[in-house]
Amino acid sequence: MRQLGSCAMLMLCGLMACTPESEMQIDESAAVRQIIEAHNSKLVHWYAAGQIDSVVTVFASDARQMGPNMAPLVGREAIRDSWTQATSWGTWTFELNTESVSASGPLAVEHGTYTLSFEPGATAPPGMAATADTGNYIVQWRREDGEWLIVNDIATSQIPVATLCERHQ
Asked: What confidence tens digit (pLDDT) does each residue in 54-112 have?
């Protein structure tokens, strides 16, 4: 009888160990998603307002931003420099739609879709036209000192390159 009790206890512990881990991952991903969506809301506002010093606070010092049809921006300073110049040319408006977040420990991966529009201002280079884009993105986040920061930000346009070229002719 004692052996049967020990076996039952081991089985119960085994079942309990399996279920909470998967539930904990779902709970963890949901909690991290809320944080990421709050960051995204701030980022959308900051880009539109040209507040790039605020934007870069959400990026890790070793971050990479890989936008469509451009070379990667490597490091917080490169991201700051590029976006400071870009926002001086006009207004950038983003909409971000987080579709999923998967978190485990200090890492999380976000997948979503975006829409982007640019309206040139008075200081835009000659011939720079208004533009719009839609696409998909994947962002890798890392928790550092209790804060979730962007490590890799990768976006792909859904607009065919030929269409983009036609817009700029």
From this structure: 999 999 999 999 998 889 999 999 999 999 999 999 999 999 999 999 999 999 999 99
Domains and CATH numbers, the chain: 33-167 (3.10.450.50)
Helix (H/G/I), strand (E/B), else coil: 79: helix
**pLDDT exceeds cutoff 90 at 129:** yes
Work out the end-to-end distance of the chain between its first and last CA atoms, rounded to an integer number of angstroms: 85
Q: What is the C-alpha separation between 114 and 3, in angstroms, rounded?
A: 59
Q: How many residues does the chain have?
A: 169
* Residue 19 CA to its chain's centroid (Å): 29
Classify the phi-psi angles of 56: left when phi > 0, otherwise alpha if psi is within -120 to 50, otherwise beta. alpha
- Asked if the model's pLDDT at residue 9 lies above 90, the reply is no
Give me the amino acid identity at 65: Q
Residue 149: what are its φ and ψ, rounded to 5°? Answer: -125, 150
Q: Where are the alpha helices (DSSP H) in the chain?
A: 2-49, 52-55, 76-88, 161-167
Task: Please name the residue that has the structure tokens 């792909």.
Answer: 156
Phi, psi of 49 (to 5 degrees): -85, -5
What is the Cα–Cα distance from 100 to 108, expressed in whole angstroms? Answer: 10
24-33: pLDDT as tens digits: 456 789 999 9
